[in-house]
Design a protein that fits this description.
alpha/beta, Rossmann fold, 2 domains, seven-stranded mixed sheet
Length: 258
């Protein structure tokens, strides 16, 4: 059985669905894309069969997160017979929240990694600047700015900015319209009025130095959700699951059958 959305499958055990974070795909060698997708889920696959379900290629301008969530819901219905655990990372967390609000019957438990009910004002401003640079085909500056703001300290952000400018395709792809469409769509995403209706057990994790969301946004989302718990990593920036065994173990423990 296949899905209309691209996915990477890794590990063995009970299924765990991951909605990955945002990065450029067009113009990136396929082997690099597959390596990045596997690296994001490898620690989670130590205890589960992980299905990383990505957004489709060829997104239409103006697509909403409601539509993205519907496409992901259709994929889950096609691939699984029962509600599944879902981990949403960064932008993938926004899609996961929308899906949990619109299709609660598909979700057993929910984990948000570096994500909240909306971007912080600083995060929105940064993503608008990145989108503006992408429209002008200034991919080196866009990639440098994107990667720099995932860092937790000034020296780290400088190093990441340089890395992004040296290898922009690995961050923003090459003239990737899907990345730009998603950035523009996420600019208007705000689920504050609806997250209180999400009743599935939820774990919110994030870095205390996250610039895209901020610890305050994680706390605000936690306060709105009746069955949510939260862990803030005080010294971390826009953390992900890449090689993070401590975070992966926390997620797997939370999702373990009770």
């Amino acid at each position: 059985m296949s899905s209309a959305l691209p996915y990477t499958r890794l590990g063995a055990g009970a299924p765990l669905v991951v909605f990955p974070g945002l990065f450029g795909r067009r113009g990136v060698p396929g082997a690099i894309v597959r390596w990045m997708q596997r690296s994001e889920i490898v620690e989670l696959a130590r205890g589960r069969e992980v299905w990383s379900i990505d957004r489709r290629l060829g997104l239409e301008s103006g697509i909403s997160f409601e539509q993205l969530a519907q496409e992901h819901a259709d994929a889950i219905r096609l691939l699984f017979d029962e509600p599944v655990d879902i981990v949403g990372i960064s932008t993938g967390g926004s899609i996961a929240l929308q899906l949990a609000a619109d299709y609660p019957d598909l979700v057993r438990r929910l984990v948000l990694v570096s994500s909240a009910h909306r971007l912080s004002e600083f995060g929105r401003d940064i993503q608008r600047q990145i989108a503006g640079r992408l429209r002008k085909n200034r991919s080196r500056l866009a990639a440098g700015q994107f990667l720099a703001n995932t860092g937790s300290t000034r020296p780290t952000r400088v190093l990441l900015a340089v890395a992004g400018m040296l290898a922009p395709r690995l961050v923003v792809g090459h003239r990737d319209p899907d990345l730009l469409v998603t950035l523009e769509s996420e600019d208007g995403f705000d689920l504050e009025s609806r997250v209180g209706s999400i009743l599935v057990p939820t774990l919110i994790t994030g870095g205390g130095r996250d610039r895209f969301y901020t610890a305050e946004m994680f706390e605000a989302t936690h306060a709105l959700m009746p069955n949510a718990s939260i862990t803030i990593y005080p010294r971390a920036g826009h953390i992900s699951t890449f090689g993070n065994r401590k975070l992966a173990r926390q997620i797997l423990d939370f999702l373990a059958p009770s």
